[in-house]
């Protein structure tokens, strides 16, 4: 009875919200039906993108109940969108509060394979899960509990080309499912920084491409071989010159387009990544701006004097043929909640969050070739979450005013597609589109046994 009353109240709130939207010049809502897919008393956290299987039948999640718990989270599961069936894909061995930990799971767009962060296998109180102590592990969904180590790791000199020396994070598949991007922190630089104040462990963006890398085994389980060849692709420095394009942090990237983007001369750049980079303005203040790295089509090779694997006193080198450039030059930079950049499928527009002249966080877009940003949303309230673009490139989904919204990119027409929830039960994280663009999965808290747990909800037309 109580649940029926809550549902009735939410429905009334939704109807009032629609009426209010008419006064705000929002278009009347597209009718989405909502289904709650998970119900158990544990977390069901969706990653910020690529949560759906390639056929749209499964949604992958990890068992976190908030974003800060990867180190103490031990399982990856998936739920069927039609039946609600739950399958456990992977469970860590000897899981403790220190690790190893798993999370941030994504589906390949071309295979029935899930990729996620996995802490180093020897995690304990003295060597806990951390940003330099994690790697990418995959599971084929018809072979649960059989981990596939994607990126190789080698922290024992001499280091191995194609292996990295730290922790990869927030893995994202390219449109063709062949290459994978990630953010990265280097264990060797982290340790060196403890004795050399001129050195810092600076976050970078890297990629892995299909080519096995063998690392000599070690008894500590710190190292592992992998089925991919990994490199960093962003150039960072400890001391960016004020007013320059130098950065000391590269993060929260995305692949540009499903098949790349077109340059001003009409040629196709097949592989490129947009990322956020921290610069210093002329006054020395840190601002976040948008950057692009164009990548060569072939396997990355070493640039002169910059070993891909790095040295005992230097971070891994950026490969030959990688070109990095800044495309925004704003007064205040990227601003808002943490988010990952997203592009339209044709690669023509990179979307990001920033404040409008009234201080409201809105969605903006800019060409990967640079130019003037364009405003996508003009809401009276701020965007509260990361966001995703539908497969047709027409709509962008996000959370604002404690609701899920979609905005038509070309027109700015905005539609509220859920009721407005209370702060305790508001949507959390990034709404994820299904491969056919007909459904959106998202997280919000519900009460189970008098406690709040993140559950997965499906909105479908």
Give a brief outline of the structure:
Helices cover 6% and strands 37% of the residues.
SSE diagram, text form:
Blueprint: H1 2-23, E1 33-36, E2 58-62, E3 75-80, E4 86-91, E5 102-107, E6 113-119, E7 134-140, E8 148-149, E9 152-153, E10 163-164, E11 166-173, E12 180-186, H2 187-192, E13 204-213, E14 226-232, E15 250-255, E16 261-262, E17 268-269, E18 272-280, E19 286-294, E20 323-326, E21 342-343, E22 350-355, E23 361-366, E24 374-375, E25 388-389, E26 395-400, E27 403-408, E28 414-416, E29 427-433, E30 439-448, E31 451-460
Parallel strand pairs: 9-10
Antiparallel strand pairs: 1-31, 2-3, 3-4, 5-6, 6-7, 7-8, 11-12, 12-13, 13-14, 15-18, 16-17, 18-19, 19-20, 21-22, 22-23, 23-24, 25-26, 26-27, 27-28, 29-30, 30-31
């Amino acid at each position: 009875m109580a649940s029926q009353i809550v549902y009735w109240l939410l429905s009334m709130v939704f109807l009032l919200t629609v009426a209010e939207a008419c006064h705000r010049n929002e278009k009347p809502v597209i009718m989405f039906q909502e289904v709650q897919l998970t119900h158990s008393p544990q977390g069901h956290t969706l990653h910020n993108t690529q949560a759906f299987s390639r056929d749209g039948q499964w949604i992958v999640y990890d068992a976190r109940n908030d974003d800060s718990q990867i180190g103490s989270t031990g399982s990856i599961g998936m739920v069927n969108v039609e039946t609600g069936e739950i399958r456990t894909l992977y469970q860590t061995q000897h899981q403790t509060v220190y690790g190893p930990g798993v999370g941030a799971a994504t589906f390949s767009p071309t295979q029935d394979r899930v990729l996620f962060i996995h802490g180093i296998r020897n995690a304990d109180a003295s060597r806990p899960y951390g940003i330099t102590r994690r790697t990418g592990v995959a599971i084929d969904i018809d072979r649960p509990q059989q981990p596939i180590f994607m990126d190789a790791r080698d922290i024992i000199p001499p280091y191995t080309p194609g292996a990295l020396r730290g922790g990869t994070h927030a893995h994202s598949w390219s449109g063709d499912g062949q290459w994978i991007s990630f953010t990265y922190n280097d264990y060797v630089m982290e340790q060196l920084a403890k004795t050399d104040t001129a050195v810092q462990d600076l976050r970078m963006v890297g990629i892995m491409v299909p080519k096995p890398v063998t690392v000599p085994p070690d008894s500590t389980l710190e190292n592992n071989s992998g089925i991919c060849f990994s490199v960093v692709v962003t150039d960072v420095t400890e001391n960016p010159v004020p007013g320059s394009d130098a950065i000391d942090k590269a993060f929260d990237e995305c692949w540009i387009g499903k098949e790349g983007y077109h340059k001003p001369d009409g040629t196709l750049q097949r592989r490129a990544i947009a990322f956020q980079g921290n610069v210093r303005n002329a006054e020395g203040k840190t601002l976040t701006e948008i950057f692009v790295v164009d990548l060569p089509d072939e396997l990355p090779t070493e640039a002169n004097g910059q070993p891909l694997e790095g040295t005992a006193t230097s971070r891994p080198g950026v490969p030959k043929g990688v070109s990095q450039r800044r495309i925004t030059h704003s007064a205040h930079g990227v601003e808002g909640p943490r988010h990952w950049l997203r592009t339209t499928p044709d690669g023509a527009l990179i979307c990001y969050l920033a404040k409008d002249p009234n201080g409201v966080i809105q969605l903006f877009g800019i060409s990967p070739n640079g130019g003037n940003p364009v405003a996508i949303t003009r809401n009276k309230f701020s965007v509260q979450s990361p966001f995703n673009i539908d497969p047709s490139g027409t709509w962008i989904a996000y959370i604002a005013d404690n609701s899920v919204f979609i905005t038509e990119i070309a027109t700015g027409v905005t539609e509220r597609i859920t009721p407005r929830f209370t702060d305790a039960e508001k949507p959390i994280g990034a709404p994820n589109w299904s491969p056919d663009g007909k459904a959106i999965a998202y997280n919000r808290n519900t009460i189970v046994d008098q406690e709040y747990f993140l559950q997965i909800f499906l909105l479908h037309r």
